[in-house]
Write a structure and sequence with these properties.
The chain is α+β, with helices and mostly antiparallel strands. It is built from nine helices and nine strands. A hairpin with a 4-residue loop joins β5 and β6. α6 packs antiparallel against α7. The longest helix has 16 residues. The protein starts with a helix and ends with a helix.
Length: 279
């Protein structure tokens, strides 16, 4: 049996949703059916292993504990190409603190309660019991991987896993003054005949905002461009009917700032997107 598949099956048996990674520690791309998120992305969001496609799709959402799926014919060829195994921490009610260098490790040892530790190439993974929102660069050399994210499996590690401390949760909380929502009046009121706009369905709008947040948080490069294009997509879908609120916009700005964008950059990107769409 392929060694990566063997590892995946062992993790799945322990209730950890797993997925294969290709070279560069990246997930396999969307399947043909879902290329460009044509299906809307992340179907069945309520559970881990959200991707229902026959192949491996949607990054972290492809993580599953289902043995039949992991050993199915569509996945067989992918396991042969896989370079590593990843898992969806929140799907197993876990949070991974990714400490990317010795300075980050030193900070954690002096600031956080001990837990299970897994050595990485440049630092350590600290694994806590409990799930939370993921965020990159919460401080220098520190990423949080839990909900809507994947972490590479590097072994069981050492130490006793402890409960997720509040000191980790607060790392993703921005001070109110640092999150600058776009100015009031950014949207266009619903026009005649649009009183029953489909976007006013909470699930539809919330799903769109969640997808936009994920797209920003998962950006591995060209963050400025990703933020602008994501803002543009959100406004294209929801900007003409009065559905967006300051709360929705603040969520997008917070996601962008978690990637290192300044409040000024967020406002500029939002304004440019409004201008591009003539809103």
């Amino acid at each position: 049996m392929n060694p990566h598949l063997r590892t995946a099956l062992a993790l799945a048996a322990a209730g950890v949703p797993v997925l294969p990674l290709r070279a560069g520690k990246l997930p396999f791309g969307n399947c043909t059916t879902c290329a460009g998120n044509a299906c809307g992305g992340r179907p069945a969001m309520k559970s881990a292993g959200a991707c229902s496609c026959p192949g491996v799709c949607h990054g972290w959402a492809a993580g599953t504990t289902d043995v039949a799926t992991l050993t199915s014919r569509p996945w067989a060829g992918i396991w042969q190409q896989a370079q590593a195994v990843a898992y969806h921490p929140a799907g197993a009610r876990l949070t991974v603190l990714d400490l990317d260098d010795t300075n980050a490790v030193s900070w954690a040892r002096h600031s956080l309660p001990a837990t299970r530790i897994v050595p990485t190439t440049r630092g350590e993974h600290w694994i806590y019991l409990g799930a939370m929102r993921s965020a990159n660069a919460v401080r220098r050399g520190v990423d949080i991987k839990s909900s809507m994210a994947y972490a590479r499996w590097l072994g069981p590690g050492t130490g006793t896993m402890t409960a997720l401390p509040e000191a980790v949760r607060v790392l993703v909380v921005k001070e109110p003054a640092t999150v600058r929502p776009a100015p009031h009046g950014i949207t266009v009121a619903a026009g005649a005949g649009e009183e029953h706009c489909r976007h006013r369905t909470p699930a539809y709008l919330d799903r769109g905002i969640a997808m936009a947040e994920q797209r920003i948080v998962e950006a591995r490069g060209a963050v400025h461009t990703t933020v602008y294009r994501t803002f543009l997509a959100v406004l294209s879908a929801h900007g003409r009917c009065g559905c967006l609120t300051d709360t929705h916009v603040a969520r997008l700005f917070t996601a962008a700032q978690s990637k290192g964008e300044s409040p000024r950059h967020c406002t500029d990107a939002w304004t440019n997107a409004l201008t591009r769409l003539g809103l």
